[in-house]
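Field reference: sequence -> structure
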Amino acid sequence: EVQLVESGGGLVQPGGSLRLSCATSGFTFRFNWMYWVRQAPGKGLEWVSRVYTGLSNQEYANAVKGRFSISSDNEKSTMYLQMDRLKPEDTAVYYCSRGGCPNGICDRSRGDWGQGTQVTVSS
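Structure field:
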C-alpha cells in the first residue's frame, strides 16, 4: 500500500521558517517526480515545487523561488521542504504527492497524495 505522510506544519510568524517532511512507503522512492502542492482557503491546488528523486532535479513555482528549498533522501524514502522567509500568503494546507501534477496541473484524483499538513503564517 502506498503511503505518504506529511509532518512539520504549524503556526509561524511572518519571516519565520518551517521544515516539512513527507515520509513515504509502499513504492520505490528513487526515480519518481515528487511534488509539494498547497491549497489556501477557498482556492485551488497550487504546485509549489518538485524534485526528481533519482537525479535531484528541482523546480520551483515563482511565488516561492529563493525562499523554499526541496530535497529528498533516497535512503529514508523521505522528501523535505525547507520554507524560509515565510509570508502570510504562504498559509495553506501543504500536500506531498507522487505523480499528482502531470503537465503541471495538480489533481488529487491522479497519483498518490498525503493527508496534508497545515501551515499558518500570522503575527
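Note: Residues 49 and 60 are 4 Å apart (CA to CA).
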